[in-house]
């Protein structure tokens, strides 16, 4: 019988949060899309071994050194992943160049976008696209990751024009 190889340790929870705080939060969560939330959590955590999670804005949030994505759980009609570069929109934010052929992202600002999933079927259909978005976001926002070379992208929607 082969000895099992040890599993890599997950990243530590940030300041003052126990490592299982998101699991405890999810245990107590009453939400009609709880299974969908768990599926999205698993996909995001599986996109890169450096990704940890914590509770931010009363929802699961994902981080490497800094938070980069947070789930929006309300209203409970869909699961939304809010990709961001911090809690506040920065006046000097540089636009991110994310290749999004699936059209999942709706841009709220040059450095903030939202992906919405209405059902488990929707999540499963866009699993590979979500993993690609997470990896690109990390590559462009993480201090420790090399920048991604993106050759095609959908331009961010201008909030003023609605395009």
From TrEMBL:
Residues 34-138 form the YdhG-like domain. Residues 1-23 are annotated as: Disordered. Coiled coil: none annotated. Pfam families: DUF1801 (PF08818). SUPFAM superfamilies: YdhG-like. InterPro entries: YdhG-like (IPR014922). Residues 1-12 have a biased composition (Basic residues). It comes from the Bacteria. This is YdhG-like domain-containing protein. It comes from Stigmatella erecta. The lineage of its organism: Bacteria, Pseudomonadati, Myxococcota, Myxococcia, Myxococcales.
